[in-house]
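Key idea: predict the complex, not the pieces.
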Amino acid sequence: MSKVHMKKDELIEKEVKQARLFQNRRQFLSRLSIGIGSAALGSLLIPDLFSGGGADKEAMAGRLPHFAPKAKRVIYLFQSGGVSQLESFDPKPKLREMMGQDLPESIRGGQRLTGMTSGQASFPLVGSYYDFAQYGKSGAWVSDLFPYMGKVADDLCIIRSLHTDAINHDPAITFFQTGAQQGNRPSMGAWLSYGLGSDNQNLPAFCVLVSKGKGNGQGVYAKLWTNGFLDSVHQGVQFMGGPDPVLYLNNPPGTDKVSRRALLDKLAELNQLQFDAFGDPEISARVQQYEMAYRMQTSVPEVTDLSKEPDHIVKLYGADCLVPGTYAANCLLARKLSENGVRFVQLYHQGWDQHGNLPLEMAGQAKDVDQASAALVTDLKQRGLLDETLVIWGGEFGRTNYCQGKLEHNNYGRDHHPRCFSVWMAGGGIKPGMVYGETDEFGYNIVKNPVHIHDFHATILHQLGLDHEKLTYRHLGRRYRLTDVFGEVVKDILV
Amino acid sequence: MKSIQSLLLNLLIGLNVFILFFLLFESRIVVPVAFQLVGRMHPLLLHFPIVLLVLAWLLACFGNRLNLQQAITWRFVHAMLFASAWSAAITVVAGLLLSKEGGYEGNGFLWHKWMGVALCFMVTALLWYHWQMRNKESKYDRTFLAGLNLSLVALILVGHFGASLTHGEDYLLEPLRRNEQKTLNVETAVVFPDLVYPILQAKCLGCHSKNKAKGGLILADTSAVLKGGENGPLLVKGSAEESLIIQRLLLDLDHEHRMPPKGKPQLTPEELALIKAWVISGADFNRPLSAMPLDDTLYHLAEAVYGPAAKESYDFPAADAKTIAALNTPYRTVKPLSHASPALAVGFYGKAFYTKQSLQELSPINRQIVSLTLSGMPLSAEDRETLASFVNLRELILNNTPVDDTWGELLGQLLKLHKISLSSTSITETGLTRLLSAPDLRTVYVWNTGIGADVLERLQQEHQEVRIERGYVDDGNVVLPLNEPLITPASGFFRDEVQIALSHPIPGVELRYTVDGSEPDSLHSMVYDTPYRVKSAVDIKVKAYKTGWLSSSKVVRSFHRSGYTPHQVSLMDRPHPQYRGRETLTLFDLESGGSNHADGKWLGFHGQRMGTSMYFDTDIRIDTVGVSVKQDYRSHIYPPKTIEIWGGADSVSARLLGRFHPELLKQDQVLPRRMIHAAFDGKTVSYLRVTAEPFGSIPDGYPGGGHPSWIFVDEIIIH
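Result:
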């Protein structure tokens, strides 16, 4: 009896347990389904969930500034080799007083040296061979080597406190261009092309112009205007000085415009077939590139034709501006490209690496660039374009306050110096007539308002309406930025 | 009843999962416009969880003091928790949606967001825990109460961060600080009341008010400020050093008379500089900021203290995205100024593709266009009418277009226009005067328009509020040197004849040249006209001239005729490995080496002889042999010390025909290249050998003295 009873109890208990289990399972499932349902509901808010791509694609599609920009375009006058700040924009009378005396160890503070001076027994200080004068209402000090820049000093913001991590040319210039010392990252112009797109669909968004001075030169290679991991449409396009400004743009001999058009149309049809079959967006990107190259056949000769520039413009930039391949000609061309909506025009002028023979070589270099650089600022201004175009002038690092090699009263050299150097910016919402940052009386260390290259990049992007922390691209499993994980916008120099 | 409760519980869990999902995929989520409504209810909804949670906390902690039965307390608390968990979840969802609208960033926001989310999960967890205790008779355990307390703390923090977001960082403590932050309208601001006085009010009035008046000084109003205190007047207009107020402000912090005294809130450097600048500018009480020069220190300081002027806002709705997309062509770019901005910027490119419809087609978005670039486009009268409908234009760039005075009136009617560029147009004084009536105009660019300097000067005087930019004017006082003319071909060697052409990059230049060795000048030398042919060696000297310019430097090029080419050449000595050129071909290729001796067109020898053997098929009669060498003393490149010419029927029977010692010119006379001629009186040979010996030791007094010299040869010429 009891046995049966027990069995009955057990059975009931089992039933209850089962029911409860079932109940729990049902509840669990129903709750799970609600959870999944919620997730599904949420997924409706993601427009491109099933179309591949991701956040980066979304960022690409917009191609708009994050906020209203001050500058629409950039012209970067890169002075390759490392201009001496001590003979340009950062006068140090103390160095003249202490001519020939050794650089105090306390000032050097363990700074690593390049292999070119690390073996030197002494580091004799050397003052500028050239005098400085104050210019404009701002009273900015500019050396006698740059009288034309002096005349536009009230339009410039001279930053004396830039500093970098690199001490040799290639890493330093790569750092300036890409935000990293090792190669393969996208250049600044490529980032801007990616972030903002092109204003003029008939020209590349990122154009590169190279010229060479007579001074000691350092290599400038295509890796500096690379698209890195970005799409190849963002790569810089080099404009040459010769009869063929953009290589491979002209039709091959025997092909006229009409047959070219027919060829492109047919090719586009074939590509469309391929696209329909595979859906690879690179195919349509390629078609667009063909079309752009076709349009460039008209736009490039138009923009590179300097022969129609009036005499007073030639006088403004200097006679060399009509000699293709010179810095002056490149400045004039930069103005025309920028005027035609090119987002980023990158100039390089080689020959600023004065390890020796500095007074003479630097005079030659300054003569190459002084008038044309100032002219570019003036020319943009008189066309009402300076306020929307950011012009930047400067090299990849500064030069030491001590002499490299033999110190003579009228001849000396300077080695690379990463701790401080001067650049100037003009237009594009940067405060005009300002001198920012300060170095010590030896011109060796920064004592006020240092600006690191990452800060410099962040500021440039900010002026173009881009938040440097938001302009990212996903590559190799993580997001990349021009400013890596650093950079503060230098608010003090903004209008 | 129970099923409803169960359903609600399930839904609550669903909502929490949804929040989790939202957070995980936040960067990819795009909120539809309708949902933004929900987002904007966040400020309303957030009050519910606050009140409900506080009630739950009160009941749970103090319920037993009210002698309530635990079961009843439980039911009340449960109801409160239930409602607060629900409202918290909805609030969080709304908040997340709101945050996607943009404009929310910074640490305060991140704290608010993550604490808010944490609070929501926490309350839901508490609810679940509370449910487990439904049949207990005893009081709440410590775990539950601790959780509840923690939630309350989180609630307060979330609320605080949220309030800071809405009302600003300093909202809570603002009354304590009495630090008034206000925006400054640069156009209407008056220096003293808007810039200087607020500083006095904040930092001085505490002790120098009508109630307190320390030192007999009252700063309550203008007349009182002027009057000064026991120690005399405060201000000496125009002199900061002599003004008592500045003196006191600049004293050492420990000084007895320092103002504000130690321990009181001090002036910031910007504030101090502002007061100083005001005193220096004359301590005028009524002067508007706009009457100061634009580059005045006061402007910069005003900005430093009050922040930059307010951003532009637009009072029109955004245009339809599809319309905008459809209006973009390769030759016309239409883009919003920035993400989520209703304002559009339009640029036209490619003159050849500009038609009469190009501008007209923009009519659907004529209200939204604020910035327009038409540089270089062939505008017509119709375009003028179209442009009149772009009523919100702020920036207009019309450089190098057919715009003339008929446009002046229209442009003057664009009420919002700030900036217009009319450089290189046919606008004259009449048109510019009309244009200047545009009420909001700030800058006009009229470079290269033909409006006289005096007219512009006068207009600028009459319209102080507008900056008239004239740009660079070539007044004829700046005289620059022309660059060098070009002589083609680049190579100075030819076989039978050569066509010589002169050119210059600058149009309108006159090229004058000589071929007789005399110096070219602007009066007597021949004027270059067309290319011409020469058959014998010639030295050309050219200079470029143009009125308004200095003449160019002189360009000299020697052309040498090469009579014979040997059939076989061999180098008896190896050139330096870096400067091998094209080996033997280099010497008879009729190509000149360039200024760079590493360009592959030079053969270089360092401290070592150059010897060349030349074989001819037939007997030749030679008069001269020329050796073309490079000279660059600073690089230790010198002419050979000795040149020997050997000749005969073959290499064995060759005799020395002559030995020459080229003159070593002084460094300041040296040209970068030089042809060294060795002349004989008619020798017949079929084998020729030329050797050139460098200096084993460069003579003293020359660069590199004591070291062996280099020789560089690019061509040998035989006549």
